[in-house]
Design brief:
The complex is a heterodimer.
Chain A: H1 3-29, H2 31-36, H3 47-55, H4 58-86, H5 90-116
Chain B: H1 12-17, H2 19-22, H3 24-50, H4 57-66, H5 70-97, H6 115-143
Helix pairs in contact in B: 3-5, 5-6
The chains are: A mainly alpha, B mainly alpha.
Chain lengths: 118, 145
């Protein structure tokens, strides 16, 4: 894939994160404000709340999408920084990209396991 | 004759020193990078913490108890603010990439105005939005006490 397409995907992933991570932050970090407004559980971190979200059909899919999009956006950003520091020589580029793809795939597998084996 | 050494125009030191020359947008660039790296580090920890649910309720409660202290609550709030900042500035960057808020091209008449200066109002609006949401997060923490 060309660098321009990778960059475009990075931007699209960023736009998707604004929605997905935004929703995650509102639910997980503003629970008392939400509860005061009569929406959402008072404490989303109790095991019962976690189990309730895991049992719904939408949350696991949203979490998987969030995981994939966040990993791509984050690791592509990290790749840019590492290549800036190490120089953009072809060998360095291939090595850095390969390592990050392996790390990303492992994290995606681990995260998907947590989302769906629960 | 000694070869003239040009300053290295990349690297973490340049990220900081360049801010003196390039103004607000460079500080936003620096903040974007640092918040991005911080969030990526937190993301790894977050994956490990949430994986505890596979071990059942006791394992979940035990792992959550590890982070139920003032230090981690403060760290969590810092990450929340970093997410807000990174998101608001990221939205500005996406809009700039698409050409929004940069103004129409014109003749270069002194004193020159760059497209960054034309977009500064948008940058400030987004910083204010991020600060307002950070305030809401602080209010939520306050309600929890």
């Amino acid at each position: 894939m060309t660098e321009a397409r990778l960059w475009l995907l990075h931007l699209l992933a960023g736009a998707a994160l604004l929605v997905l991570l935004g929703a995650h932050l509102v639910v997980m970090h503003l629970p008392r404000v939400l509860a005061a407004l009569g929406a959402g559980p008072a404490d989303p971190l109790t095991f019962a709340s976690v189990a309730e979200r895991a049992a719904s059909p939408a949350w696991p899919l949203l979490y998987l999408l969030l995981l994939f999009v966040a990993l791509y956006h984050g690791l592509y950003g990290l790749r840019g920084i590492v290549l800036e520091l190490t120089g953009a020589a072809r060998k360095a580029k291939v090595l850095v990209s390969t390592v990050l793809i392996i790390l990303g795939a492992a994290a995606l597998f681990y995260g998907a396991l947590v989302v769906f084996r629960f | 004759m000694m070869e003239k050494v040009m300053p290295r125009e990349s690297g973490p030191l340049f990220w900081i020193t360049a801010a003196r020359h390039y103004g607000l947008e460079h500080w936003l660039y620096l903040g974007h990078r640092l918040s991005g790296l911080g969030m990526l580090a937190y993301f790894c920890l977050h994956l490990w913490v949430t994986a505890a649910r596979l071990g059942g309720e006791a394992a979940w409660e035990a792992r959550m108890a590890l982070f139920d202290n003032a230090f981690f609550h403060a760290l969590e709030y810092v990450v929340f603010v970093a997410c807000l900042f990174h998101g608001a500035n990221g939205l500005r960057l996406i809009l700039a990439e698409l050409g929004f808020g940069l103004g129409k091209p014109g003749r270069p008449v002194y004193p020159y105005r760059t497209c960054l200066e034309r977009q500064r109002r948008l940058a400030l609006v987004l910083v204010v939005v991020a600060l307002a949401l950070a305030g809401l997060g602080a209010l939520d923490l306050g309600l929890g006490r």
